[in-house]
User: What shape does this take?
Amino acid sequence: MDGRLLLSVDIGSTYTKAGLFRLEGEELRLLGKAVRPTTVDDLGRGFAEVRAAALAAPGLPPEAPGSAVPVYWSSSARGGLKIAAVGLTPDLTLSVARMAATSAGGKVVRAFSYELTAGDLAELAAAAPDIVLLTGGTDGGNSRVVLHNAARLAETPLPAVVLYAGNRKVRDEVAALLSGRELVTADNVMPEVGRIDIEPARDVIRRAFLGRIAEGKGLAGVAAAAGREPLPTPLAVFELVRAIGERVPGWEDFALIDMGGATTDFYSHGESFRGGEAVILRGLREPKLKRTVEGDLGLRVSAEALFRSESAFFESRLGAASPDLLGLRAHVESVSRATDLLPADDRGRRFDALLAAACVRASSLRHAGTIQRVFTPQGGFEVQRGKDLRRVKALVGSGGYLAGLSGPALLLEACAPDAADPDVRHLVPEAPACYADADSLIPLLGNLAADFPGAAARAAVAGLKPLRPAPNRS
Amino acid sequence: MDAPRIVLGVIGADCHSVGNTILDAFFTEAGFHVVNLGVMVSQEEFLDAAVESDAAAVLVSSLYGHGLIDCEGLRQKAVERGLERLVLYAGGNLVVGKTPFEEVERKFKALGFDRVFPPQVELAEVARLLRADIEARRN
Assistant: This one.
């Protein structure tokens, strides 16, 4: 197997990137890279160009025919898989269903709890999801509501695949109700109250994605040329984060922020709750590997939404009703209209940095849990909700803006405490070392993480650029 | 028939976990399917767990004397959540001070609890009553 060549391609919304790797023993070595603008009208054209360019890398043995090099590829085309999550109670099965959907690289377009109403069904149809993730009830628990919801879904014309991952006891009845539909089933996402089991549902969503994504423009041709179905890009990254956390010494506790024009994705690996004498966990115990995706945090397409949701942050940095705040507003208006606009002057670059800081900060606060000091007749206790990221040792920035960072300051915004309530502490990273995915290898190695987890994980960590504070000039 | 499902937990800001562990072990051994929420459980958490697991009964423990205020409104919320048939028990050191148990029982029954228990009880007897109450409520 030594010396085997592997090509990895990621079709992003703006750029199509390729990397040619050689598997040498247990290690992956990058031989060449290529980038081309994504050809939106026919994704296959950009794919073929980038593939040819990467295979033309110097150092390639002339006897190796390029067509024999296996191609692993991912695509974020169509903005990822659209998932509608249906659960029973908002804080239990619905919350777990959301977790399963985002962990599988999907985007939750609608979420419903309890019985679906006629209005819900109309909303559902309008959202045109690729998958309806139907959950509800523990195994042997409530079945009335999922049966009701299955019957309502059966009478609603929807092209979506229905994935049933609820109360196992009525799986056959749900299947019978939805017999006319494209239906897949998985183990219950919450078999017991508080026990999360999202891996089986995640796996089914991943396979459903393979079938659906190829319907994107020209992707069927790419799949035929590559001889392999694509991964959704966020899922490729998710698998790489898992491989790094499990296989690279010293990286068990780390986080990765992938920020783009439309969304900010936050991935973390590490124990979510560490217990302790006087610490009590309330709510669900979150998984070791977690992804959240924030649709209102982005530098371009979502800049208007960001400006609104993080207005308090911008005011605190620039001053309320200051000329700078008005300037930022004008900047937001122009970049959200012309989404490929890059700032031409320092002022514009400063505004972009501020938008990026807001995305990093808010995505971290939303991903991380909280700890609250409470006083009880038995003394002081700490109540934790959500995931503890305080021990995160490394924080990686990826995606266009963060990949280009030269210092750690912007990523360290992820550690900024939220001063709104002094009794509540946010469990954000405390003192991470910062890195940038400067060569944009994360998605490319993510594609290889399923087949070569150790090698891809080590190559990813080795390829990161450490971001050290600028030397003090005084 | 499946084992009857019951939800256990210690309500409010109460961190007494020993009795909760004992109840869990006892009712599991006695043939119940126990969903144990542990300590510091809110009313919403009790009811969410009861809805998802289709529980027949919720057993609320309170050991620190503030049970009355913590339990107020639980029955109404259960009804609002569609749990009209839920069997509700409360037990422990439910109120501060030396209030006679009859008085405590009267107050908790007024809140909609089906049965109320003092700190010392014969658990086998509680299990017997619980089975009977669940059976009666089912029909």
